[in-house]
Design a protein that fits this description.
Rossmann fold, six-stranded mixed beta sheet, globular
C-alpha cells in the first residue's frame, strides 16, 4: 500500500471498505465529530508533532530495538527469528504509543479526565501513566476476572493515581469493561475523553490509534534493513483488537513479506472456548463499529475466552477485517497450549519473558519456522510478561517440563 492508502483509508465516514463507521447514540455524535476534527487539525501542527516526538524519545524510550534471537534461531534449524522489542517501551508494552498521543490530544482539546477499558491491564497502565504525565484524572474499567488475573497491573494503575472500576456484569472480562467505560463516558463527554485501547470502536479511533502505532512499523522496517541489508520474509503479530499488529504491519503492506495476524484459538474452536474472530466470525456491529464478530445463534456477540486477557474480545479492528477480505494479511491461530509453550521457550532460550498476548505471535512464528527454512521472521514482541508471571508460575510452574506435566490432558488442543 503506498502512502495514498493512509490518506484514503478510512474514508471520511470512518470506513475501511464495508467495515468501521460510527454507530453512536445521538448524544455522542457531535462529540466524536469534535474528536475527529481536533485530531485531523492538531496532528498536522508543528507544536503537536514536536511534543509527541519529544515524549517518545525522552519519556517512552523510543526507538525500541529490533533484536536477533540467535539461540532461539539456532534451535530451529535454519529460520532466523527477530523481535521488535516493544516490551522495552516504557510501561512494558506498545500501548503507551497511542495512550500518550490520545492524552496529548485530550490536553489540546481542554479535557480534564481520561476514561478507558482494559483487559490485560497494559492499556490501563499506559493510560494511567499518560494521565499522570499530563496531570489529568483517570478512570479505568476492568472486569473482575482480569483484575484477579492481572493483579500486578492493577497495583500499577492505582499507584499511578487511576480509579480502577471493577466490572461485575456478564463474563467480567474485556467486552464488559468496554460496555462499562462507554456508560461512564456518556455521563460526561464534555470534560472527559474516552481513550479506546485498540484500533476498534467508532470512528475516528481505529484511524487515530493506527496513526499513533505506525511508529512501530516505521522503526522496525528501517532497523531490520540496517541490520540485514534486506526486508523480512515474514512479519508476525498477535491480534485481539489489533493495535500492535496494525502498527507493525502498516510499514510492510507494499513489501513482498508474508504478513500473519495470530488470534487465540484458546482451549478449542468451540463457541465460547476461543477468541478466533477472523477464523470463526462474520460481519456484525459491536461497540459502535462494524467488523468481523464472533456471534451466537441470535446474532449477538458471543462469549469469548483466551488465556491472554488482552485478546479475549469478540470483535476486531475494522482495518483488519478489510485486510482479511482483501487477502493481504493472513489471519491464523495459536492455542493456549502453544502460547504457554512459547512463553517458557522464549524465557529460557533468550532471557525474555513475553506477555501471554505476545507469546501467541511467538508460538505461530515457531510453527512457521518449521515450514519456511532459511527465511527471516520478524515478530512484534508487543509486551513483557511481568503482569503474567504470578498467574503462569502458580498454575503451571517454572519450566517447560513442569508446565507440560501440569497442563491437563483435556485442555490440550
Amino acid at each position: 500500500m503506498n502512502i495514498d492508502y493512509f490518506k484514503n483509508f478510512p474514508d471520511e465516514n470512518g470506513y475501511f471498505g464495508e467495515y468501521g463507521g460510527a454507530y453512536l447514540p445521538p448524544q455522542l455524535i457531535e462529540h466524536f465529530k469534535e474528536i475527529t476534527h481536533s485530531y485531523l487539525t492538531i496532528s498536522k501542527s508543528h507544536r503537536f508533532i514536536s511534543e509527541l516526538r519529544s515524549i517518545r524519545k525522552h519519556f517512552q524510550g523510543r526507538p525500541t530495538p529490533v533484536y536477533f534471537a540467535e539461540r532461539l534461531s539456532n534451535s530451529l534449524g535454519g529460520a532466523r527469528i527477530y523481535l521488535k522489542r516493544e516490551d522495552l517501551n516504557h510501561t512494558g508494552a506498545h500501548k503507551l504509543n497511542h495512550c500518550m498521543g490520545e492524552a496529548l490530544l485530550a490536553k489540546y482539546m481542554g479535557k480534564k479526565k481520561l476514561i478507558a477499558e482494559t483487559g490485560a491491564g497494559q492499556h490501563g497502565v499506559a493510560l494511567a501513566t499518560a494521565a499522570a504525565y499530563f496531570g489529568l484524572e483517570c478512570e479505568i474499567h476492568m472486569g473482575e476476572v482480569d483484575i484477579a488475573k492481572e493483579h500486578p497491573n492493577v497495583v500499577r494503575m492505582k499507584l499511578l493515581g487511576a480509579n480502577v472500576v471493577a466490572v461485575s456484569e456478564g463474563l467480567r472480562t474485556l467486552k464488559e469493561a468496554v460496555d462499562s467505560a462507554f456508560v461512564a463516558y456518556l455521563k460526561d463527554p464534555i470534560t472527559s475523553m474516552y481513550c479506546i485501547g485498540s484500533v476498534v470502536g467508532p470512528h475516528p479511533f481505529p484511524m487515530l490509534v493506527r496513526e499513533f502505532q505506525r511508529i512501530v512499523g516505521i522503526e522496525a522496517r528501517e532497523q531490520f534493513f540496517e541490520m540485514t541489508g534486506e526486508l523480512p520474509d515474514n512479519v508476525v503479530a498477535c491480534v485481539g483488537g489489533g493495535s500492535n499488529a496494525i502498527g507493525l504491519f502498516s510499514a510492510f503492506l507494499d513489501d513482498p513479506a508474508e504478513i500473519y495476524g495470530v488470534e487465540p484459538s484458546g482451549r478449542s474452536l468451540d463457541l465460547g472456548e476461543n477468541s478466533a474472530t477472523m477464523t470463526l466470525g462474520k460481519p456484525g456491529v459491536i461497540h459502535g463499529f462494524k467488523c468481523y464478530l464472533l456471534q451466537d445463534d441470535k446474532g449477538e456477540p458471543a462469549p469469548v475466552y483466551s488465556i491472554a486477557s488482552g485478546l479475549d474480545y469478540p470483535g476486531v479492528g475494522p482495518e483488519h477485517s478489510y485486510f482479511k477480505d482483501t487477502g493481504r494479511i493472513k489471519y491464523v491461530t495459536a492455542s493456549d497450549y502453544e502460547c504457554l509453550e512459547a512463553f517458557y521457550t522464549l524465557s529460557r532460550t533468550e532471557g525474555i519473558i513475553p506477555a501471554l498476548e505476545s507469546a501467541h505471535a511467538v508460538a505461530y512464528a515457531l510453527k512457521l519456522a518449521n515450514e519456511k527454512k532459511y527465511q527471516s521472521i520478524l515478530i512484534n514482541l508487543s509486551g513483557r510478561g511481568d503482569k503474567d508471571i504470578d498467574f503462569v508460575s502458580e498454575k503451571y510452574g517454572f519450566s517447560l517440563e513442569e508446565f507440560k506435566q501440569r497442563y491437563k490432558e483435556t485442555d490440550k488442543p
